[in-house]
Amino acid sequence: MVPALFVYDEAFLDYEFHPDHPFNPKRLKATYDLAKGLGLLQADRVVSPEAASSELLSLAHSPHYIDLVQRLSQTGKKTHGIERLGLGTDDNPVFAGMHEAASLAVGGTIKAAQELVNGSAQRVLNLAGGLHHAGRGHASGFCIYNDLVVAMRFIQRETGWRILYVDTDAHHGDGVQDAFYDDPQVFVLSLHESGQFLFPGTGSVEEIGTGDGQGTTLNVPLAPATDDDSWLEAFSTIVPRVMERFQPDIVVSQHGCDSHYRDPLADLCASTRLYDAVPRLLSQWVDAYANGRWLATGGGGYQVLSVVPRAWTILWAQMSRQAIAPDTAIPEEWLAAWQPESVTQLPRGLFDDPRDYPRIRDHHRMLAANRATLKEIAARFPAYGFDSPA
Ligand SMILES: [Zn+2]
């Protein structure tokens, strides 16, 4: 069995609303090039996806919605009233070929799920996936189809496995939460900037699931300016205890890197240290508590060249158990190819230089707010012992 697989296809780059849209697929190619340039991505690790069929898409979406996306995709022109379904808006403008592009992103996560279900790989990464905002009958937050929901329902259908979903994007994973809100077989855990300050506004500690699914949704809404240490304190307090108690057969994780301090769309203050620690910890916990099965996706990330390729190359290195030195330099060939595409000077190191890190104002207030949130979560989930030392 190969240790880890990387799903990639140049056709992923067709998921482009328009050239000036913040969700820029160029980051996928830049990441692929960087991982290869650093010798971290061998050809036999790369697998290519097929577009997800309408039958698969219907695991997450209504036939009416799939049909509408297909029709809009043919003309690339918006029609009357579609804003109601989140399409033809500033966030999710209509473009020709959108159905094909979005189906391929879903197909990438399905490909990852198939490898895991077949037992041909234990860890698979699809950076084109992680489109966690799309709902059953609507687009939202740059997400047309929800690859995560499709793939998790596919895994459930094929295996009956219990799934732990861990969402580390700066935004709440509302589309995934909604899909499994009453399902006790899927534990949906999301750490994100509080919805009081950021899109989509949901993801409070009160949202804990409903019916049979009560107690299998857990939200950690973080204060603006949350730094690596405070983020990791929450992550390390909650995730291993949930895994120990819930006993998932597989972990599905979303790795949006818009929590970075330079990201323009959120207000968190993470650095590449977080993007190294999160998969390093998950890697240990997946082996200890989830039979070693791990499907990971990308997600948000709007510093397209200066942050995303580094964050996701580090993610891949950790997933595939390849060591990377803290002083790893970005290859000259990569900089020569991508610097002309960037208005700012691209970093020379794989990891952020700590000297560039901004001083956080109100650091104490941020820390106190996050600790208060952890206390509230501990009170809502008494059986997990979140308030006792590990
Ligand atoms: Zn995001």
Largest sheet: 8 strands, parallel
Proportion of residues in β-strands: 5-15%
Total beta strand runs: 8
> At the first level of CATH, what is the class?
Alpha Beta
Regions with little confidence, pLDDT below 50 for 5+ residues: none
CATH superfamily grouping: Histone deacetylase domain
Structural class: alpha/beta
Q: Would you tell me which CATH topology applies?
A: Arginase, Chain A
Lateral arrangement of strands in the main beta sheet? 2-1-3-8-7-4-5-6
CA-atom Rg in angstroms = 20 Å
SSE pattern:
EHEHHHEHEHEEHEHEHHH
Q: At CATH's second level, what is the architecture?
A: 3-Layer(aba) Sandwich
Bound heterogens, unique:
zinc ion
How many domain regions?
Answer: 1
N/C terminus separation = 33 Å
Mean pLDDT: 97
Tell me the helix content. 25-40%
Describe the protein in words:
Helix 8 (272-289) links the parallel strand 7 and strand 8 (294-297). The chain has helices spanning 26-37, 54-57, 63-75, 98-118, 147-159, 174-179, 228-246, 272-289, 308-319, 332-338, 363-380; strands at 5-7, 46-47, 123-126, 163-167, 186-193, 217-222, 250-254, 294-297. With 390 residues, the protein is of the alpha/beta class. It has a single domain, classed as Arginase, Chain A. The chain is 37% helix and 9% strand. The chain has an eight-stranded parallel β-sheet, with helices on both faces. It is globular, with a radius of gyration of 20 Å. The longest helix is centred in the N-terminal third of the chain and has 21 residues, at 98-118. The protein contains eleven helices and eight strands. The structure holds zinc ion. Zinc ion (ZN) is lined by residues 169-171, 256, 258, 299-300.
